[in-house]
Each structure stands twice: as C-alpha cells, then as structure tokens.
Amino acid sequence: MAQPKFLTLLSLRRNWAIPYLLYLFVFVLIPLFLIVMYAFMDTEGTATLANFRKFWMQPEALNTFIYSVGIALITTFLCLILGFPAAYILSKTNTRGARILILLFILPMWINFLIRTLATVALFDFLNLPLGQGALLFGMVYNFLPFMIYPIYNVLQKTDQNLIEAAQDLGANPRQVFLKTIVPLSVPGITSGIMMVFMPVISTFAIAELLTINNIKLFGSTLQENIYNGMWNYGAALSLVMLLLIGVTSLLGSEGGAKSEEGGLL
Amino acid sequence: MMKRIFAGSYLGLLLVMLYAPILIIIIFSFTEAKVLGNWTGFSLKLYRSLLVTGVHHSLASALWNTLIIGLIAAFVSMLLGTMAAIGIFNLRPRARKAVHLVNSIPVLNPDIITAISLFLLFVSLGISQGMTTVILAHISFCTPYVVLSVLPRLIRMNENLYEAALDLGATPFQALRKIMLPELKPGMISGFILAFTLSIDDFVVTLFTIGNQGLETLSTYIYADARKGGLTPELRPLSAIIFISVLLMLLVINRRAAKNKS
User: Fold this and answer.
1) CA–CA dist A152, A196 (Å, integer)
2) DSSP state, B227?
3) Is residue A14 domain-resident?
4) Which of A93, A133, B148, B176 has a 20 to 30 A CA-CA distance from A99?
C-alpha cells in the first residue's frame, strides 16, 4: 500500500531533507557542473583548452579582470575604513538608540539598487561632479557599506566588556586597549564584512555601466556580453576563472573567521 | 563630551551620504520634468499618472510580475527550507556537514555565476525561459537563507517536547503541528521575509533566466530603461512610496518591540 509506505518515509525525520537535496542537485550542482563542462568544450562539443588560452592571450578580458579585482579591493578597503568606526560607535550607543540607527543604515537597501544607482547619477549631476572612476567607487561604497558595518557591529556588541576592563586595569592606555584588545576581538566580524563586500563587488556590473556611462567595464559586463552574444563556451570559461577567485577568497575567509560562526549576518 | 559629538556627527555624515540619493528621488517625484534633476515646479502629476490613470501599463505589469514571483518563490522556499532544516537537524553529524557545505554554495556564489549556471541548465535542457524559470531560479538562491534562519530555532528547541507529545499519544502529524511548528514559526517568518526581499531585489539572475518573450520585472524594466538613457519618471513616485511605507512599517515594528520590553 502506498500511503503507509509514504508515511514511514516521512516518519524518519532526516528524510525530510530529501526534496531540498534533490532541488540543490538539479538547480545548484548540475548547473555548476555545466559551467565546467562548457568551459572545456568548443562549440562542437569536443574537449579543448582553447577558451582559457583565449582569456590568457586576449589582453582585453585579462585587463578587465585585473582592473575589477583592483576596484573590488579598493571598495572593500574604503568600506572597512569607513565602516569600522561606525560599527564601533554603534556598539557604544545604548541598545535602543543603536537599534534605530542600525535600521537607518539598512533601510536604503529596500529601494531597488538600480534606482539608487540612478539617483547617485542624478546626485553627481546635481553637484556638477564628473561621472567616472570616482563616481564608480562612491556608488560601490554607497551600495555595500551596510554589509561591512553590520557584521562588525554584531561582533563588537557581543564582546565581553570584562576583557576590555581587564586590559585597562592592567595599565593599557586607550590606544593600546583599542589596538590590542578591541580590534583583535572583532576580527571575525571584519572577516565576514570583507567577504560580504568583496564577493558581490567583484561580480557586479550594472553599477559600473550606469555610473561611468559605459566608459569603464568590469569583469561582470564581460561575462554578460559573452553569454548574450552566444559565446557560451568562452563565457563559461571566464565564469570558471571568477569562480576560482571566489573559491580562494572564501577559503581564506573561512580560515580567518573559523572561530566564530555567529560573526556574520547569518 | 567632545568625543560624543564627534562620534555622533560621524554617523550623521555617513547617513547623509546614504540618504542623499534617496532624498533626491523623493524631492524630484514632486515635479513633472522627464529628466531626474530638473525642477519645473511643484506638481503631483507623476503620482496621479502612476496611481490613477495607469499610463504606464508596462511598468504596472513589471511591478505585478515582481510581486508574484517574489511571493511564490518566498512561499515555496519557506516550505522547502523548513522541511530541509528539520531533515538536516536529524542527520548524522558528517552528513549534516556535507549538506551545510552544499547549502552555502548559493549563498557564497556571486549572482552572475548563479545566473550563468542556471542559464546553461535551461538552454541545455531546452526549456523555454519565462516566469517559471525565474521562479525556479529564485527558489534556488532563497531557500538556503530559510534553512539558515530555521535551523537555529531547532537547535534551541527542547528536543524532549516533541518526544513527550508522541509518548502522550499524539500522532507525528499532531506533534508536528502543535509542538514543532509554533517553535519554528519565527524562523520561518523571518526566512520568508528574507527570501521575498532577495527575490524582489534580484536583478542579475532574473535577467539571465527571464528569456526574451517580453516578460519584465521591476529590475529588468529599470535596467532596460536606464540603458535607453533615462528613468521612466513614474519610477520616482513609486520608489518614494515604497521607501515611505517600509520606513513606516519599521517604525511600527520598532515601537511595538520597545513596548513589549517595558
């Protein structure tokens, strides 16, 4: 009989994960495998390394890649410099005030990021500032700063105040307390903040197209153009290059933040 | 004292930077000029044409598609993710670790990689792209977040309660409905909200899975608009309305939370 069998299947609660596991297999693992497969094939379906050779030989794609990594590094650095003090101040504010302030920092994200980016364009026009690399960096920082503030705030807020008092009692001056106690304790938050800014910035393309009037191209645009023009194999190879970079970054990140699973947003 | 003033003004400065573009949208939603940044006198014409006359049929349908896709994707993700969380929680540690790893792939993957990989899946299988493929794609990157918001509730829950219900004669279904679900509900709700937010804000994955049958969501509509060289003026009042309603909603929630505490 079908029904009792179905029920016994359900009564083992670990079987409840099966539908999702199937979903992950079809819509996450197979698609990733397809990227790898297409990357190592030509349009006829024979195995080849030509796609990667093309990436290596073509200065344009390679330069765009290096430039994008550079932009992502600068954006991440700026977010850290601007975000850490903000997170630190927030962690010192009383809880009610901090809650409202945190909400204020997250609220803009509810407006579609493309509309916000276009508004940034309007702001630059309004202030008579030129669009270009500066506008691009502003737009990036503007879009991703909250992702840096929140994880750092989370960690700082949970920091054991006794450790800071202990440092003070043992004669550390405020600067030493900050550099030798507070900053090291917030490393897990900093790590997840860096990951949450660097990873999306490296792949975004619409922001760059809008804020530089198509003058600066990021690697995301190169990917999109190739797929759109039907160059699936080359596009897949470029995706694989980006995937490798992301893989290395997250390995480094998980090493740095290994101690705290609760450091991040999740 | 000096320190506090300095700290306050630093936060204030950052907030001004974050809100300046939004303020510009709101201010210029009250004028009729086609180009954002031109002030041609106060007018409610844009609000009227957005809400009353419905001139922009394509904008209305894009908005509608965005909401439908978001609601369906978030709802399915919530069911799938909650079931998965219960299953994962009962797996042996090693299997649990493996599933966790696969679950984190969609979270860590940049949008564009998710987008291209799903695009390749659909074209390889010869599936024509449209609303269904967008929803399937959104479920794949929303569900991990539901799993991540339900799992902590399970970990915190008292395992014995469920067993006790069974011992006292409840069927597994009753125990699930009366014991487990009430415990998991807050996690499910926040998972749903998170999934809905991610879905309506998504641009890249939608762009790659929506096909070319003329279907638009808000994001792809705005992108196409921007590439043509300008923002449809009615998007200004629309953004202003979305922003103000979210602001009000958060204020109400915050006030209620504060009241509950005291």
Assistant:
1) 11
2) H
3) no
4) B148
